[in-house]
């Protein structure tokens, strides 16, 4: 009996938890028009509102924020040709090793290496190359830019106007009474 064939990438992955996470993330993407709507941009009135807003935005837009990170990562790859070349070479070597591994297995001191062990060995051997081309700086640029943009959006996007209209007026009344 053969396993069912899937047309999407999540069906090709061997880990059910990864498949479930990908499906969950895909179903939780909020409309980009809502995500980028500048009518909901407003500075928070107090620190307590700010902290609640950040938590609500992170929960509500987490899939969109993931795509912001992926977009910045792709931008970094496109603008850094050496990094793109090194990643293509790394995946090419892994592909060649996976095809070669089907016919014969590499053995070191009588111990046959599995495909996962070969991938780990390739990854470890590629680390100096990534270091020399500045992949660390690119990685921290992507992480920093993502953190900055996500935090900026989470602070200033008034999610209460979307989730429960009228909450903004109640918060203003509570602040004025105190």
From TrEMBL:
What GO terms fall under cellular component here?
A: Golgi apparatus; membrane; synaptic vesicle
InterPro entries referenced in this protein's UniProt entry, alphabetically: Prenylated_rab_accept_PRA1
Give membrane topology per the record.
Multi-pass membrane protein
Question: Could you confirm whether the keyword Nucleotidyltransferase appears in this record?
Answer: no
List the keywords (alphabetical): Membrane, Transmembrane, Transmembrane helix
Segments passing through the bilayer: 65-93, 113-133, 139-159
Indicate yes or no for the key word Transmembrane helix. yes
Coarsely, its chief localization is cytoplasm
Q: Where in the cell is it found?
A: Cytoplasmic vesicle, Secretory vesicle, Synaptic vesicle; Membrane
Q: Highest taxon of the source?
A: Eukaryota
Classification via PANTHER family? PRENYLATED RAB ACCEPTOR 1-RELATED (PTHR19317), PRENYLATED RAB ACCEPTOR PROTEIN 1 (PTHR19317:SF0)
The family annotation for this protein states: Belongs to the PRA1 family.
Question: What name goes with this protein?
Answer: PRA1 family protein
The species is Vespula pensylvanica
State the organism's lineage: Eukaryota, Metazoa, Ecdysozoa, Arthropoda, Hexapoda
